C-alpha cells in the first residue's frame, strides 16, 4: 500500500500554460472595447433597443489603427506577465524540467505511530547492527505521526563507522521504506565547486571540501555547532554472523533459487569470509553475481 502524501506549495512560479496567450489577451481587449462603446452609447441614447440593434455592426468594427494599438498593448502585457512568472530567464529546456513543480510537491506522510513502528521493524530486521540509527529515525517518525506533520521529520544523522558496514545501504533502504527518492553526492567529483568537493592535487590551494571534512570516520574535526544540530552515532564493525544473516535475508528478499542460497551459506560455513575483514560490499557483490547467474537463460 503506497504511503500517504501531502502536496505542499514549493514555488511562486507561473508556467506558460498558466499564462494567457497573446491571442487571448487581444480577444479580451477587443471584447472590452466593444462593450465600452455600447455602454457609452446606452448612456447617451437610453434604452432604445432599436437604436442599439442598428449600432451593433458599428460597434463590432475595429479599424486597423485600433487593432494595432490593441496588439501592442497585448504584447506588452504578455511580456510583463512572462517577466513576473519567474521563468523568463530560463531556456525552454529548463522550463520544461521545472514543469513537475506545478501545483506543489508531494511529500511522504506518516499517518500513525503503528506505521512508524513497521518501518523501524523492517529496517531492524534487515540490518540489526544499525539499530542506533534505526531507533533514532523511529522516534522521529512516531513524533511526526503524533504531531500530524504534513511530512516526516527526524534529527539529521551523522553515521560514523568502519567502511563496508552498510551506512549508505541503510540510508537507501530507509528511503525505500519511506517511498521517497534517494540521492548520493560524490565528494570525489571534478573541482567545479571547490567549497563542496575541495580542490584537486596540483593546485597550490588544494584542500578537502566540506563534505569530505564532514563525513570523516571520526568525531574529531567535526565542528561542535554541527554536532549539536545532528545525532552523531558511532557504529560498531560487522561480525561474521551478522554478515551471514544479512546475506540469507537479502537472498530471500531477492527470491534467489535454493542452489544459490546454499552456495552462499557454504561460503560462510567453510570460513572463507573469516579469512578477510567482513564487508557488506563484498557480500552485496556476491548476491548480485548470484542473482545474475540465476536469471541467465538456459542454453540448449
Task: List key phrases describing it.
single chain, mainly alpha, Rossmann fold, two-stranded parallel sheet, elongated, 3 domains
Give structural notes.
It is a single chain. The chain is mainly α and 300 residues long. It folds into three domains: 65 residues, no CATH class; 127 residues, 3-Layer(aba) Sandwich (Rossmann fold); 56 residues. 54% of the residues lie in helices and 7% in strands. The chain contains 13 helices and six strands. The chain has a two-stranded antiparallel sheet. Strands 3-6 form a two-stranded parallel sheet. Strands 4-5 form a two-stranded antiparallel sheet. Strand 4 and strand 5 form a beta hairpin. Helix 1 crosses helix 3 and helix 5 packs antiparallel against helix 6. The protein starts with a strand and ends in a 5-residue tail after the last helix. About 4% of the residues have low confidence.
What fraction of the residues are assigned to beta strands by DSSP? 5-15%
Identify the CATH architecture of the largest domain.
3-Layer(aba) Sandwich
Helix content: 40-55%
Model regions low in confidence, pLDDT < 50 over at least 5 residues: 190-197, 200-204
Rg on CA atoms, Å: 32 Å
Shape: elongated
Q: Look at the structure and give the mean pLDDT.
A: 79
Number of H- or I-type helical stretches: 13
Strand order of the largest sheet: 1-2
Structural class: mainly alpha
Our measurement of the CA-to-CA distance between the termini, rounded to an integer number of angstroms, reads 41 Å
Number of separate structural domains: 3
Main beta sheet, described?
2 strands, antiparallel
Instruction: Look up the CATH topology of the largest domain.
Output: Rossmann fold
Number of strands: 6
**Element-level helix/strand string:** EHHHHEHHEHHEEHHEHHH
CATH classification, class level of the largest domain: Alpha Beta
